[in-house]
Every structure is written in C-alpha cells, then in structure tokens.
Design brief:
The complex is a heterodimer of chains A (337) and B (338). With 337 residues, chain A is an alpha/beta fold. Chain A has helices spanning 48-55, 90-98, 107-110, 117-128, 133-146, 152-155, 165-176, 195-212, 223-229, 247-252, 257-265, 331-336, and strands at 6-17, 20-32, 37-41, 63-73, 79-81, 100-103, 183-187, 215-220, 232-237, 240-246, 315-319, 322-325. Among the domains of chain A are: 111-180, no CATH class; 256-336, no CATH class. Chain A has an eight-stranded mixed sheet, sandwiched between helices. In chain A, helix 4 (117-128) crosses helix 5 and helix 5 (133-146) crosses helix 7 (165-176). The radius of gyration of chain A is 21 Å and the shape is globular. In chain B, strands 6-7-8-3-9-10-12-11 form an eight-stranded mixed sheet, sandwiched between helices. Chain B is globular, with a radius of gyration of 21 Å. Chain B has a domain at 8-101 and 213-323: Rossmann fold (3-Layer(aba) Sandwich), CATH 3.40.50. Chain B has ten helices and twelve strands. The longest helix of chain B has 18 residues, at 195-212. Chain B has helices at residues 57-64, 95-99, 119-129, 135-148, 165-177, 195-212, 223-229, 247-252, 257-265, 305-309, and strands at 8-21, 26-41, 46-50, 72-78, 84-86, 102-105, 183-187, 215-219, 232-237, 240-246, 315-316, 322-323. Chain B has 338 residues and is of the alpha/beta class. The chains are: A alpha/beta (337), B alpha/beta (338). The interface between A and B is large, with 50 and 51 residues.
Amino acid sequence: MADPILSVRGLETFFHGDEGIVRAVDGASFDLYPGRTLGIVGESGCGKSVTARSILRIVERPGRVESGSIMLRRADGSAVDLAQLDARSKDMRDIRGGEIGYVFQEPMSSLSAYHTIGNQLIEAIRLHRRMSKQDARARAVELLRMVGIPRPEQRVDSYSFELSGGLRQRVMIALALAAEPRILIADEPTTALDVTTQAQILDLIRRIQRERNLAVVLITHDMGVIAEMADAVAVMYLGKVVEAGPVDTIFHAPKHPYTQSLLRSIPSVLAEPLSRLATITGSIPHPFARPAGCPFHPRCPSFVPGTCDVGSPEVVRLAPDHEARCFLFDQPRETAR
Amino acid sequence: MTAATPVLSVEGLRKYFPIRRGVLRRVVGHVKAVDDVSFSIARGETLSLVGESGCGKTTTSRCILRAVQPSAGSIRFLAAEGRPVDVASLPRAELRPVRRQMQMIFQDPYSSLNPRMTISDIIGEPLLVNGMGDLESRRKRVAELLDVVQLPRAYMNRFPHAFSGGQRQRIGIARALALNPALIVADEPVSALDVSVQAQIINLMLELQQRLGLSYLFVAHDLSVVKHVSHRVAVMYVGRIVEVADTRTIFAKPRHPYTEALLSAVPVPDPRKRASRIVLEGEVADPSNVPAGCAFHPRCPYATDRCRSERPELRDAGGGNLVACHRADELALRGVAA
C-alpha cells in the first residue's frame, strides 16, 4: 500500500473544566490512505468527533490538543505535523478546507441562513483559489451538479432553509470539496437523514472518492454504515482506540470484548422478529467519572479483577494490520505471572 | 397472537392541516398529513408504523392519543371495562378515563422529564393527576414501577439530571406504565440512545409486553429496530399506508416497491453483504400537492401509465396482509435475506 496521507500517533485532546480534566481523546493512533475509507466508530462520549476536530485544529476551548502527532503528507510531498501548528496560522487555515474537507453532522446549523448557498460556496472557493467572482460562481454551479443537486443553476441562489435535509447535506459535501481537498472527514454525515436519503449520500461519497482518489474518514455510531463504507475501522471507547483493523476482521473476527459486545447488541434487519438482543451491562460512564484501569472494565464480560481495574492496557498487535488494547492479549505479562 | 377484538381499530383516519395565505388567512389548500389510514392492533401485539420523515406516522400516533384532533375517521379503543369508545369523536371531558389506558413513551429522554421534579414525582404524577391513592400508596406504586423497569428503588428521590439516557428512558417507561395502560404509543423510543443502551430498552419493552399483555404502536424509522420488536409492520408513504404485513413476510417478501426500496436502503452490519442497493431518486412527495395516481409513481422504478393516473387502493395480499400497488401480483420484489 502507498504511504499514508495522514498519520495520527498518540493523540491526546483534553478539556480543562472547573470540575476537572476530561480526557476526550486519550491516545488515539491511526493511518489514512488515499482512496481508502477509515471508519471511526463508537458511542457517545468516545471521542470520535473530538478526534476529527483535533485533526483540523478546531477543538473549542477549554479543549486543547495536549500531545501526539498528526502528520499530514502535503500535496507538494512535504510533511507537516498539524499538532505543532498554531491553530490560527496561515498554514493551518490553508490546510483546513484546502487539503482536508470537513462535513459536519448538522447541515441545518452548519450552513448560514443569511447567505445563499452559492455565496457560501463562492467564499469557500475564493478562500483557497485565486479566481474571479464569475468564475467562482460557475465553479459553484459545477460543484452543485457534481453532488447531484437538480437544477444547480437555479439552486445556487437559494438559501439553505429552502432545501430538504438531503439536499443540505449535499451542499455541505460540495462546500467541503470546494477547494479540492485530498482528505474528506465526514462526521455523522447521515445521522439526521432518512434511510433512503442516507443511501443516496453514502453513494455520493463513494462516487466522489472513486473519482478523486479521496482519503475519507467516516465518523459514525452506526455499525451498518461502517460495514457498507469502510476499508479499515477504528473502534473507540472513552477516548481510546480499543481495536483497529480491516473491516472484515472487525466484523468477523473481532478480538476486543467491547467490539464483540457492541456487534452482538446491534439490532439487525436480518434478525428473528421479537428476539431479544444481547446487551452490554451498565451505561457509558460520565466524563468526570471515568473508571480507573481499562475504561471498559466495569462493563466487560471478560473482566479480570486485579488487572483490568488497575493498569491501563497497551496496544497489542495481533496481526500486521490488526491491533487491540486489552490485557487478554498481553502475552508477556500473562506468562510472567 | 391475534385476539378476537382488537384493542385499537382505526378506520379512515384523516388529518388535514389547512394552509392559509393572504391578509384574510384564506385556506388555499391542505397538507394531507394523514389521508385515509386504517389499521388495528390486537391485545399483546406490536404494530410498527414506518416511513420517511413527513410520511404522517407521528401525526397518526398523535391522533390516536387525541393530541391532535383528527379531521375525519374513527379510532375505536377497547378500554378495560369492555366498552369500545371512539376516541376521535369523544367529548374532551370524557377523554381522561380513556387516556389512562393509552400512554406514550417519548423519543427524547432528555426533554421529556421535568428537571425540577424527582423521579418519584415524575413516575407518580399520572396517579396524582387521576386522583389515585394517597401519598403513601403512590410511593409504594412508584417503588414497584422502578422494580419493573429495573432501576434501584434508592433512585426515587433523585432528579433526572443524575441519570443517563437509557436510565431516563426507563423512567419514561415507568411513568407510562403507572396507570396500567392497555396500549402504549412509542414514538421513536430508542433512536436517541446509544447502541449498547438501545438493546437494553428494546429487551425491556419486549419483556413488559409479555408480562403485562401490552399492545404497542411503535413509530420508528429504523427498520432494524422494527424487525426486533414488531408482530406486524405498516409502511406509510405521504399520509397513506401502502403495505401492511406480518414482520417476517414484509422483510422477506415485500409486495410494494416502496417497501422494497426502504429495505434495500438499510445498511446491513456485515461487510460481506454489501448489496447493490436500490437508490431512490428524488424526494418524498409534498403532502400538500400529492402526485396524481399512486403517490409513489415519480420515484417508482416499476411505474406504468396506470400508476400515473389511477390511485391503487389497499387490497388483500394473502394471509391477512394488505398492499396498495397495481402491480403487486406481477412484480417479484427483493426483501432482505436472513
């Protein structure tokens, strides 16, 4: 495989509040390759959105990227560590949108209600490309056509509230792609949409990825979307990537107890009607009351007292492309005892 | 499974919202949110209403509770006294005793519990409002209800903010059960919850149904959840039911092209089953300007001239199932294989 376009290592993003520190992202590592989709999956509070926002350096105060590296291979071949850049620097602003496009979860609140979608697109285009307003407008119509918006010549002058949820999300994708980035980060791009519209948007992302060899980071809580879209998957729980590997391995040979439990507990259209679901006991802990040791231990079916509630498990490589963060695979320690 | 007399039977339900324009607020048209909907629910049965947003599933459920006044149609509800009443035409004053027996579970467990009330007050309020029991007996009942939804009794005096989404939804369920209802309307009860918690609530609802013989009207857009909880499924499109069938049949052998498209759009949690999806073109029709003929024809890959001019009625599709499609008999539609 080609070199990764983005390499995240040991990323830590903390929120410093009056009540204490929330370790929203607590040591996340993964690689992203051109033309491939990395799915980041997890439940609320697992840090998947903060991870994406950390890459773009748009974590709001009191959040801060504390440590780790985010190496981006730029179009000219040079490499830059985004974690080291000033969030407000010219470089970072060029990368944001220019090299990494971002699709937000909520298309209604992410689009301005005061500007036409055309003007928002023209702004995004001219921010990164030297272009006359007329040319930028033509390009905006072109972008709207590319994301499958009917009658783009007219729609370019409409406001976001005149569009349906599906069309708004298409406009969001057009905005993210306005400056032709090589990476697209989509944070729950289909969560607010109906299944039929979701299918359209996922198809669109797939098509654009093929046409442009885009590297895609797809953030979602929906295992079904991951199964349909991702090449590689990172499963997050309470700020940590607990398991990462190729999509087939994650779904058919998961090793971490959390991944296993999560997969068993999702309802499926293939299930027997009126059948009970497997559950994970308890619920996700409050951010200020994170358990010591492995964050999953209070809910884990394979909990080992004296080990899991004491130390934090390290990443164990199970195969060249498959890793898990769990004491069950911590071979040296097991044999030493 | 199906008792002789249904708990609820809805006949020709309509809800039109007027569109007013101009200084005189003249009515220039109607949004036909619910347009001639009929179905019934047996004791101990779950009927799911599914469809895209704007299809009228929520309005239908709100009509049944008389949270909105239906424009036409009857809603016959068999109360515990064995005397069926028409909820649609009942005078307001007589609604309260009927409403005791039909309760609601809401979608958002964060906004549906009053943050200034303790759990005991929230769950006990239906009893208080209906003047049932004294303080002591109400607290006893609240404690029982907490047992039923598997929450520790010790939580009784806490406020909602101390609870997670899943626990809040359990509290909402306990409140709905307080008056021993016969029918529970659940509008997207698990869609705001995390996956691992969703499973707990689905199991709880299944368990309660078996134990208490509850009937559920389950309104949802997530077909995977629907598959787990339903005896029967009704698919709605632009205010009308286009297909009703038992769960197994509708998922395996859908008869309406819209059902087929909905099913094929659901992502299957297995990367080895990345199927070729039917991606529906366009958007849901506007309920204030419904297309002539079959409302689905502009998006239907199988539409013929007849579909463009003549509206298909719901008709028997065998085994008690119904479908509203001219071509249901000739089409071999694809379901989801087990």
